[in-house]
Every structure is written in structure tokens, then in C-alpha cells.
Amino acid sequence: MAEERTSNYIKLCDEWAEKFLQMEKKELMNRLPELKEEDGYLKITHFGVPFGIRLDNGRIDRLDGRAKANATEMLNIYTLLGYVKENAFFMDKWVPFADLRNARPFGPAYKIGVTDVFAATFSGHAKELENAFEKLNGLRLPLGDVGYQIDAFSCEPMQFYFWDCDDEFEAQANILFDYSATDFNHVESAVSTAEMGVRRLAELAGLPLKGKAFGMS
User: Fold this and answer.
1) Which residues pair with 173 in a beta bridge?
2) What is the pLDDT of residues 37-77, one digit of tens each?
3) Does residue 217 lie in a domain region?
4) Residue spans of alpha helices (H) in the chain
5) 163 and 129 in one domain?
6) Is the pTM here over 0.70, yes or no?
7) In what residue span(s) does the DUF3786 domain sit (predicted)?
8) Cα–Cα distance between 179 and 181 in angstroms, integer?
9) Cβ atoms 137, 157 nearer than 8 A
10) Which phi and psi (to 5°) does residue 77 adopt?
11) Are residues 101 and 199 in the same domain?
12) Exposed, middle or buried: residue 179 (CB in 10 Å: 0-12, 13-18, 19+)?
């Protein structure tokens, strides 16, 4: 089953690579000024990691030399390019996932696969989480035991909040999106973007993910 799922994700990435080749690149760069054309790529940063979409074949490379781009990263980038609306703009209106447009059907899976994983992974590890946010040049926020704003993409900042466990309560976590998130990307991609953020934080903290994460390799 896992092999079949991975194969489907690879096929989907191949389909998106073909779609990218048909996209008007100047229009994309107008809609997403963070895109930079250099060295045969359109370059973009996703949770602090540089990526490039190849102009010759539409495939995505991770450009820091540390690993290959995984399916979650690639699909987050492809869907951003494919779904960003003309004149999309940051609204500075922060909402939980369930309050994004058309998000409610995905709410239960989002809780189990993202915020529950976020809380479980960093339970008892608030300092490691704080250090991970600092490595991403996060903006500290005055809420929660650990609260930071970081960029999924330059056009899509996100706010992460964490309350550590104590003698009475388990660890709790929440992630807020700007209401414009679904103007830049598909609502299902908000799930995988948040999931990628938790994975990146865990990676930087040197901690294994806990809970029912549903990431794509």
C-alpha cells in the first residue's frame, strides 16, 4: 500500500512538471514575486530550504545539497504555482485551519495528522522547538509556551503555537494561517504545507515525529 501511494505521488509530480512547462512564467513571477529566475531554474524557498523548478523539464530540485526534494515539498510548490490567483495578497487576518475557505471537510484529518503530531512530537521538548524556530529566523509571538511566525513561502507566513505538557494536561498545539492562504494555494495543500512545517521543525530539532503523520516521502 505504501509503495502504491508513493508511486501515485510520483506520477502526480510528473503530471505537474508537464503542467509547469505550459505555464506562462512571467505571469507566475508577477503573481509570486518571490520566484527568481536563475541558473535554469525558477527558484523559491519553502520553510527555509531553497528549491528550483527546472525550466527545461519542470522537475524540482532541492538546492542546498543536503537531500532530494520529497513529494510533499514538490507538490506544495507545484500547487502554489498552479492555484495562485491573480491579485492574491496577504490580508493579515489570522485564522485556524477550519476557518479557511472550504476547509471543514478536511478538519478531522488535519487535527490527527498535523496539530496532534505537532503537540506529541514536541511534548517535553519546548526548548528544542524554540531553537528550531530560531534556525528558521522565526518571529517570536507573545502567546503559548512557544509561539513563532515563520514563512512556508514568502507569500504564506504561518503562526505556530505550542503549550507544553504539565502534571494535569497533555501538550497542545495550534497553527494559524492568513485567510489569504486559499488564494495562493488549494485548501488541501494548506494541510500538507502545515504538515511539512511540523516535519521541518522536527528535523531541525533532531526529534522523530510522533503520532499519525501522513507525510509523503
Assistant:
1) 162
2) 999 999 999 999 999 999 999 999 999 988 899 999 999 99
3) no
4) 2-22, 25-31, 71-83, 107-110, 116-122, 126-135, 181-184, 187-205
5) yes
6) yes
7) 37-199
8) 5
9) no
10) -70, -50
11) yes
12) middle
> Which residue type, as a one-letter code, is found at position 152?
A
At 136-191, the pLDDT tens digits run 999 999 999 999 999 999 999 999 999 998 888 899 999 999 999 999 999 999 99
Q: Among 15, 50, 83, where does a domain finish?
A: 83
Q: Based on the structure, what is the number of domains in the chain?
A: 2
User: Residue 188: helix, strand or coil by DSSP?
Assistant: helix
Q: In terms of DSSP bridges, do strands 49-54 and 94-96 run parallel, antiparallel, or are they unpaired?
A: unpaired
Of 36, 64, 83, which closes a domain?
83
Q: Any idea which residue has 532541492 for its cell? A: 62
- Looking at the fold, whether 73 and 149 belong to one and the same domain comes out as no
Range of the domain at 66: 2-83
What gap in Å lies between CA 67 and CA 199, rounded to an integer? 14
**What's residue 44's pLDDT?**
98
Helices then strands (H, E): number in the chain?
Answer: 8, 9
Q: In the numeric block, which cell numbers belong to residue 78?
A: 507545484
Alpha carbons 67 and 49: distance in angstroms, whole number: 10
